[in-house]
Amino acid sequence: MKYDFSLIRSYSSEDFEKKYTYEKDDLGLNITGDTLIFKLWSPVAKNLIINIYESGDKNNDDIICSFDMEKEDKGVWCKKLEKKYIGKYYTYTIEYSDGDKNEFVDPYARSCGVNGNRGMIIDLSVTNPEGWEEDKNPNMNLSYCDSIIYELHVRDFSSLDSSGIENKGKFLGLVEENTTLNGEGKIKTGIDYLKDLGITHLHLLPFNDYEMLDESKPYDKNEYNWGYDPKNYNIPEGSYSTNPFDGEVRIKELKETIKKLHENNISVVMDVVYNHTFNELFSYNVAVPGYFYRFNDKNKLSNGSGCGNDVASERSMVSKFIVDSVLYWAKEFHMDGFRFDLVGLLDVDTINKIREEVDKLDNNIMLYGEGWLLKTDLSKDVYLTNQENAEMLNNFALFNDDFRDLIKGSVFDEEEKGYISGEFEDVDNLKNNLLGLPEWSTEPKMAVNYTSCHDNYTLYDKICMSNPEITRDKAIEMNKLAASLAILSLGIPFLHAGEELLREKRENGEFVSDSVRSSDEVNGIRWENLEDKEIKKLHDYYKGLIEFRKNNPILHIGTKEEVEEYAELLDLDNNKTGFALSDKNEMIFIMFNPNETKEKVSLQLKDYSKKMDLENITAYVYVDKDNSGNNPIKELSLENNILECEIDKISACVIKVQKK
After folding, report:
1. What's the pLDDT at 9?
2. Which of 133, 156, 164, 465 could form a disulfide with 179 if both were Cys (CB 3.0 to 4.6 A apart)?
3. How does pLDDT run across 210-226, given as a tens digit for each residue?
4. How far is CA 273 from the centre of its chain?
5. Over the chain, what is the mean pLDDT?
């Protein structure tokens, strides 16, 4: 791209924003009666033309006609056309002041042809499945801390033959019912498996249109990408549809998928990537060169994202684009939540504006993201959405990397151990994290607790790498302890898909970190692991932990005031940790033992019974080394209201004290 840096430096000025900030919500294509209205913001254009094509494939020389657009106020260009062009495809051609021209897709396009090079002129109402008007979030009454998030790549779920799923790698593959391992009719896979596991929210890696896969080619198990290379922000990814050449199909199939997930009581979280684009040829940057990005003092693109560019969210029309995009997905596709990739690069005002606007639609929509402290070259002074500024955020949660690294060791050091594998230097720091209060967080509802995600190594692989001589049985013990910490601690539990199946990513015998371009063989969920007795026990343990958390609302407290009222850290020795929760009806003791030996615990109930009358009570174990769930495992005697028990090595123990 060619840039005029004297112009770029004016983009964030008060004069430019006052003159060119457009506040109406009608950019892109809108249909009013029998009229198609196209609007594009480009205050720097000398001239703009809209091109109408028969197909969405840029390799087809099938242009139908072109029309000059008319310049309106605030840098907006407009063209009204007859409704007869619905079903066709379109692009814009811009002429700059120096006479150069570029053709590009509408940044506000709602659908497109194959590979996203031509927008589609589409009536979205024809893409709605039957009953879409009644479709809604099945978990709309859940708070952040009531939720259990399960992170999944669309393709991983069904790509391997063992899934028994027909629509491999597709949206529809997420919701095929009655699928079983290898199609043998015995062990559940697919959506039936998810429903049985008990999760509340399915977090899907990016599924807006991205660049790195060629949609025109047949499905190739070796051509793979996570999707963090956005091309068209408001269009579903074509490779996940059964026909990427027809722009209607991807929308219809995604809506059908969301509706079916909702019918199975699973809410949907969309992973969004507004911090960078695939490259400088992003359509908005063609329409207004240099406006969408940050530059450093050497006139080079800022690269805090590590992906080649940083989006200048602090500029008014970039911020508007991001807010408009989130609202579009929430309204048109009934999204129940959004996870923001590298949100530490986006400004606080934009994120709070998103919260404000989605609340008008549905105040139950979850918002969370990666609030890392990242270096970027801002075009004006703003606060960034990182952990240091967490208190400025309104109902927006951040990933708790402190918790992650304390549990298993730093993700940036393959050999570093964590609490589950015998590293006890930072136990005091871990204790605050158990209460959902890492150093940067003031409330549990701000902290997303996790031990693994799509990035870096899987939990099992990290355990193996930091403990080279470990046996599988011992690794499973550590995995269980990590799961107990993530699911039972205060805050928002977040699980990486397949973690409960001892997920590993290996290629030619080597551990794979960041499998963004690896094959299906590396990334696919290995459903056959359910046939392994020990892995099936691990799966059942996760399921039981989820069941226990869901059925004990006191674990869902989300504010600091509630922590002070109901929770207290336990006074345990020898690197054991834990906390107690107490109300007038019951007390729950959650304890973790990372040691290689059984550990005895003796606790005076009066020290932790903030509200409960200790007359006529009994105690039951609900979670131990091998079992978990909402049914008691065994009863414990209480002599003089002293709770005494043994915690097995490398395990968790949950005891509930209640009235007889």
Report:
1. 95
2. 164
3. 999 999 999 999 999 99
4. 10
5. 97
Domain assignment of residue 120, yes or no: yes
Token pair of 383, please? 């606060």
SS3 of 578, please?
strand
74: alpha, beta or left? (left if phi > 0; alpha if psi -120 to 50): left
Query: Given phi > 0 = left and psi -120 to 50 = alpha, else beta, which region is 101?
Result: beta
The pTM of this model reads 0.98
Q: Is 504 a catalytic residue?
A: no
Active site residue 370: yes
Three-state secondary structure readout of 153-167 = CCCCCCCCHHHCCCC
Question: What is the token pair recorded at 455?
Answer: 């990035």
Number of H helices, E strands in the chain: 14, 30
Last residue within a domain, chosen from 83, 104, 127: 127
Determine contact, residues 232/112, Cβ cutoff 8 Å.
Answer: yes
256: its two tokens: 């059908």
Taking only the tens place, the pLDDT of each residue in 363-409 is 999 999 999 999 999 999 999 999 999 999 999 999 999 999 999 99
User: What gap in Å lies between CA 479 and CA 535, rounded to an integer?
Assistant: 11
75's tokens: 């840098």
The Cα-based distances of 462 to 3, 189, 503, 529, 581 in angstroms read 45, 26, 11, 19, 31
The catalytic residue among 176, 310, 336, 370 is 370
Interstrand relation of 617-623 and 634-636 (parallel, antiparallel or unpaired): antiparallel
CATH number at residue 71: 2.60.40.10
Domain count, the chain: 2
Given 106, 156, 253, 341, the catalytic residue = 341
Which ranges in 467-555 belong to alpha helices (H)? Answer: 472-488, 520-523, 533-550
Residue 51 lies inside a defined structural domain of this protein: yes
Token pair 């997930």: residue: 261
pLDDT bin (cut points 50, 70, 90) of residue 611 is confident
What percent of the chain is modeled with pLDDT above 70?
100
Q: What is the spatial distance between Cα 286 and Cα 277, in angstroms, rounded to a whole number?
A: 13
The amino acid at residue 368 is: Y
CATH code for position 576: 2.60.40.1180
Using alpha carbons, select from 408, 409, 400, 387 the residue that is nearest to residue 433: 400
Q: pLDDT for 444-460, tens place per residue?
A: 999 999 999 999 999 99
Q: What's the DSSP call for residue 463?
A: H
Read off the amino acid at residue 346.
L
The single residue listed with the structure tokens 């979850």 is 366
215 by DSSP, 3-state: which?
A: coil
With b for 16 or more beta-carbon neighbours within 10 A and e for fewer, the 145-175 pattern comes to bbbbbbbbbbbbbbbbebbbbebbbbbbbbb
Q: How far apart are CA 363 and CA 377, in angstroms?
A: 33
For 1-54, write each residue's pLDDT tens digit: 899 999 999 999 999 999 999 999 999 999 999 999 999 999 999 999 999 999
Residue 610's pLDDT is 84
Q: Provide the domain limits for residue 116.
A: 5-127
Report yes or no: 540 and 196 within 8 Å, Cβ to Cβ: no
Give me the residues paired with residue 150 across strands.
Answer: 202, 495
Q: Is residue 391 domain-resident?
A: no
- Does the residue 383 lie in any domain? no
